[in-house]
Design goal:
Radius of gyration: 18 Å
Strand order of the largest sheet: 3-4-5
Structural class: alpha/beta
CATH class of the largest domain: Alpha Beta
Distance between the termini: 42 Å
Strand content: 15-25%
Shape: globular
Helix content: 25-40%
Largest sheet: 3 strands, parallel
CATH architecture of the largest domain: 3-Layer(aba) Sandwich
């Protein structure tokens, strides 16, 4: 999982750990981020500032079957043919400037996008699945199997606070979820 300490990564680490039998490997570099990702449930944390293929070998996983590329897909894409197993799968949520996936063909590595609002935006036949998924996550929270990933709160909801929240998120250094709450009196 690329970016295990971000907002999506923090919850995805927990879901992967709770709902699959997979060994969860996530990237992070700073000590506080590494600790956070471990707390979220990752079995292994690798340093994204070092070559990913070397980091995976270091922890005993020269190949992986699945990659959740949550950020910087265009940076990691050249490595995917080397680190992803034949017939493996890559899922991404970011917006790479380009995405030449031809090098993945020889190994029949599949690529999928995830966009939370596809069902509602396009009124797909399975639109009700969104409710099912959200209810399932709600149950996991109520059962204490996954935890909130909120790490910072800003208030009130006004232009200055929204600007600050945007600045924080754009730095790419936020951990977990940032919440903006409370309208001014």
């Amino acid at each position: 999982m690329i970016n295990g300490s971000g907002g999506v990564g923090s919850i995805l680490v927990q879901l992967a750990r709770q709902l699959t039998g997979l060994t969860v490997i996530a990237t992070a570099s700073r000590p506080d981020r590494v600790e956070w990702v471990k707390k979220m449930g990752a079995h292994h944390v690798v340093d994204y500032t070092r070559p990913l293929d070397e980091e995976l070998v270091r922890i005993g996983f020269p190949r992986v079957d699945y990659v959740a590329s949550l950020t910087a897909t265009d940076h990691y894409l050249p490595l995917f043919p080397k680190i992803v197993s034949a017939q493996g799968h890559i899922a991404l949520i970011d917006d790479p400037k380009s995405l030449d996936i031809v090098p993945l063909k020889r190994k029949a590595i599949s690529v999928s996008w995830e966009f939370m609002f596809t069902r509602s935006m396009f009124q797909t036949d399975d639109m009700g699945e969104q409710r099912v998924l959200l209810n399932a996550v709600s149950r996991l929270v109520e059962e204490g199997r996954i935890a909130s990933t909120v790490t910072r709160r800003l208030s009130p909801i006004d232009a200055a606070t929204l600007k600050e929240a945007h600045r924080i998120v754009e730095t790419g250094s936020s951990m977990g979820k940032l919440v903006v709450e409370g309208f001014p009196a």
